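FW: tagging you since you asked about this chain on Friday. Here's the raw sequence from the shared folder, copied in full. Didn't touch anything.
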Amino acid sequence: MIRIIMHGACGRMGRVITDLVREDSDAEIVAGVDIVGRDDAGYPVFTDINSCDVEADVIIDFSNASAVDSLIDYAVKKELPVVLCSTGLSAGQLDRLREVSNTIPILKSGNMSLGINTIMNLLKNATKVFVPAGFDVEIVEQHHHNKLDAPSGTAIMLADAINEAADGQFEYIYNRSDRRMERGKKELGISAVRAGSIPGIHDVIFAGQDEVIEIRHIAYSRNIFGVGAVSAAKYLAGKKPGMYDMQDVIAGE
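HL: got it, structure written out here
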């Protein structure tokens, strides 16, 4: 039985994961952390992570970038693995994660779904065919109007997968409104839409002369991210210190 601390227990994903774990015989949420507090979780919820004195095997984080620093301090102190799902982290925070991964296991992913992480491999193969043939690449992502960061962490993940396969030749362009010029061949455009209750839509466009290839992922509910996060927690518990991602979970190594 994997014992989980849910960091961000009162948010949308915290509630989704709470419901999923209730039906999972191999996992249990033993405590939650959220500045809002919560009485209906079925486990104690602490408003300050440093007050959490419950024994656990792993932390799942679905909070926000502003809460990550104190989370990492706590995880290092308690020697707990962290499945880090918050996006919009600063360069300094990312540097710190790489540093503390020498002490604790950290699994970081901008998207926890099996579909997105499989698409990343497809994109690497597609890039090696289409980019040398002169195709332009664009990414358009859509999310609900409450999402704070743009572009999404998933959009950046997809762009990084493409750029890695293209030997780092692309420059990411986030806003064309102030660029009155033809599109450069080394540009990779990333556009964001924020509207309604869209859980997440990501379109990758390879556009060549007289043909267009689109690869689309649609999240119809947040459950897919919760399932991935719980799978990642089970995978990460007991692992050696280091940086991990969902590719490691999929491979099961």
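FW: The longest strand covers residues 200-208.
HL: agreed, and The chain has seven helices and twelve strands.
FW: great, closing this out.
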